Amino acid sequence: MERARLREELERLHEELQRTPSIDAESRQLLSELARDIRTLLERSDDERSESDASLGERLREATERFEESHPALTSLVGRIADQLSRMGI
Predict the structure, then answer these.
(1) For the chain, how many helices (H) and strands (E)?
(2) Distance CA 12, CA 50 (A)
(3) What pLDDT, in 10s, does the model give residues 38-86?
(4) pTM of the full predicted structure?
(5) By the 8 A CB rule, do 75 and 46 touch?
(6) CA-wise closest residue to 34 among 67, 1, 2
(7) N or C end of the chain: smaller count of CB under 10 Å?
(8) How would you label 53-83 residue by residue, b for 16+ Cβ within 10 Å and e otherwise?
(9) Which domain holds residue 65?
(10) Do residues 85 and 38 touch, judged by C-beta distance below 8 A?
(11) What is the pLDDT of residues 23-42, one digit of tens each?
């Protein structure tokens, strides 16, 4: 269930990125990399988690802070994704 919800949130993030042209290239790259890393995580079993998976939560929090005022919809989406990862123990 959590993985399915996380996949849905990633899809929403992708859609929001497509609708938000005002994001600078560096920020867009950051969010794309985070989404890719999360998708990779979802493809692995819980037993296959690596140390780099633990940094996802911190990277998402940093992204949230970066977009907090300029892109509230992205901030909300990234926050929900971070919450989902936290519920999964990441």
Answers:
(1) 4, 0
(2) 26
(3) 888 888 766 666 666 667 878 888 888 888 888 888 888 888 888 888 8
(4) 0.75
(5) no
(6) 67
(7) N
(8) beebbebbeebbebbeeebeebbebbbbbbe
(9) 2-87
(10) yes
(11) 888 888 888 888 888 888 88
